[in-house]
Please model this.
Amino acid sequence: MITALGLTVAVVLLLIVRERLSPTPAEGPKTEQETAPRPAAAKDEPVLTIPADRSEREPPLRILMKPGASPPASVSDHDPVTAQLNNEGLTHYSRGDYSEAAALFQKAFERDGQNRTLRNNLALAKGNLAWKQVEARQYREALENYQSAVRLVPDEPTFFLGQGLAYDRLNEPDRAVQSLKEAIALNPKMPEAYKILGDVYYQRDEIEMAAGYYEKGLELDPSDPALRLHLAKVRREKETQAGFQQEASRVFTVKFEGREERDAAQRALRDLEEAYREIGKAASYYPQQPITVILYSDQQFRDVTRTASWTQGLFDGKIRVPIGGAATEPDLLKKVLFHEYTHAVVHGLSRGLAVPTWLNEGMAVYFESEDSTSREQHLLRQLRSGATIIPIEQLHGSFMGLSDNQAALAYDESYSAVKTLIGRYGLYRLMRLLEDMGNQKDFAAAFSDQFMVSYETFQSDWRRTLQGAVPR
Ligand SMILES: [Zn+2]
Model:
């Protein structure tokens, strides 16, 4: 739902729950229908130690820019055409125009495939182009260029490193591991390779392996604060999960502690399978990678996630749910799991990259329950009692700075905006937008590409409709 830094980390605060947990009633407009969900309390927002959005949690891997291969060079002993093509390529290369440089080097290389300099020049242009594409989140294109570079110069570790990074971002962990291990075999001193390997194993919930790689990375680069945080988190998790058992299906692995939690775990697994089928059918999307779900005691959940006491669930690449209250409330557990599973779907579609919080949370609320009309009623009640609509453009980041009432409004608006989008363009298109987010930095551009209407126009339309629904 909300995060300190990232946008993908998702915390569900089911508002009904908060009411139960909190002895004092939440502030907010009093209404006649007390059954409606309560506003969320911004002051209780969790402060998460690790943002799940990869683009924020990872420092740029600058090493990829500096392959160890010899720098591009001119060729003297060649026919004038080849030499000319190569020289033009060098000019573009020196300007940082790697795309054009690669095209020219390619032509030169086609004229003499035996020449090592021409081969090296082409590989370097491709490698640098690929890195630019990584920065622009064009991972598919980056992967193709790294693959070419690897084929041309198979002993350059940074090409394997880049290829591994691209595979990881494209959610192909097995290939990522293979490529990163090749990189390490060629140069065992690249901390980045160990960091990415740690991430891959952490996502797979192979905690020991992840810790080992993070440790190795930190050994090589002790100054990296993000890595230090990762390692601390992984160690905490390792300790907590030491005695855990698990129930698994093809897609989900549910981890839990005691025998008495086995029933809850089995029920959770059934709910998750239902979420997988239902959301999959509605959205035509089924995550390719297995999903780990960890059921904690309330205290363990606080220790591992460092969230506030009312938090009912978290998605940070894994679904984490405190089972204490939820175990005795099957409907609540189901709602939490549907909500968090939706975040996993959003995460998968957008490849873990930043999605505006209103869109992420709106989707989760949309799928958490069959009947979300109470959300809409709640929103309208707030507007009727004088609340001012928060522009959704201001709801891209964390909701943390918002007051109680504003946070409630933020969730209700998120749901309303998502419902409007689905009503207008269909869920399928919304899912494609999320997919585009994985490739494109600019949300507004991805939005207008997908819906043929500007983000701005949508916002003012939505706002007008909402205001129109409030009687004066
Ligand atoms: Zn959420």
Q: What stands out?
A: Residues 1-65 have pLDDT under 50 and may be disordered.
